[in-house]
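[Q] Does anyone have a clean structure-token version of this?
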Amino acid sequence: MTSSVLFSSATRHGRRVGTRTVVLHLHDEPESAGAAVGEREPQVGLVVSKAVGNAVTRNRVKRRLRHLASERLARLPRAAALVVRALPAAADAPYAQLGADFDTALRRLERRSSGSRVSTP
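[A] Here you go.
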């Protein structure tokens, strides 16, 4: 996700769920950024602040979160905007823990959504 409009839309108007290592913001129907909303694939943006660690640590966390998000992209509704915000605990968490926290947050989003718009595998 590269549009600041989509980032703002997801963080301000979307549903938010947090775990020990990540916070997910999901907005199912963000404003269109170019293509028609129904035609656009889900988009994911990452927020990894300096509170997570130095540049090496932040980049490692970003690579891990990017991979986790790409594996779960099919579970998101079409045209959804998902913002994944790493918490400082993500720096020391093993990959398996990040994945478990990501899945837990997605399941919580599913329960909060109307009509079960986030599908489970």
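[Q] Thanks! Anything notable?
[A] DSSP finds three helices and four strands in the chain.
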